[in-house]
Amino acid sequence: MRSLADPVSVPELWGVGLYDADVPYPVSQRDVDRDTAGASAALQRLGVAAGDHVLFVSRFAEAAQFWPFERAAVELGAVFSCADTGPGEAARVALFLRLLPMSLVAGVTPATLAGLRDLGLHPGEVLGAARLVLARPGAREELAAEGLSAGRIDLLGPAVAIGCAADRLHVDGAEWVLAGDGGRVAVSARHDRAAAVAGHDTGVAGRVLDRCPCGWPGQAVEPAEPAEPAEPVSGPAGPAPAGPAPAGSAPTGSAPPGGRP
Prior knowledge:
It is built from six helices and 13 strands. Helix content is 23%, strand content 28%. Helix 1 packs across helix 2 (63-75) and helix 3 (90-99) packs across helix 4.
């Protein structure tokens, strides 16, 4: 029988999240530590620095992917806030953007935009208060229709992918290996992780590049564009899409287009 004086081992498992909506995603503390290092590098490339305010929009089930970014923001001296991806959290998103000078808003979804419209707000105006906005597929196209050029953010299976100035997607190359030649992109873990990820079909169509003209290190995904632009979920039509900045239009290593200049 164990007594209170006996040492108790701390399990390696940090937690279990999800990816692709329903695939269990266990992560260890070592996974989180390495992912935090990659997230820190990504945030610094996006221009996040000490004293900045950052808002992450994510589901609780995505904690395994987004907690490393939140932790990295704190380690950089930034202050992070968080909101869920659902329309019911739109008021929270609007509140943060009204009260705080946001340097970065990352993870905006179509449901976020629908929730803002339900409140009688124009998403482009609300999110335009941030220096930089990273939006998920669908939301990015809707914001473009309102005249706000947002950068990309997406989940390639368990890996967080962030758009660059050349409009390509980048993952943490120290942790993930990408494969794909114009079809659907597959992702594999570079090291042993709590979750075995090998050749996972992300469902994202695109071409994997060994280098990117933006200057960010490692592989990049050139996403396949939809045949027609996405239509807003609701609300009046906005001005003509601004469109993404052309590849190479920003200085090497700079942040993607989005938010105010």
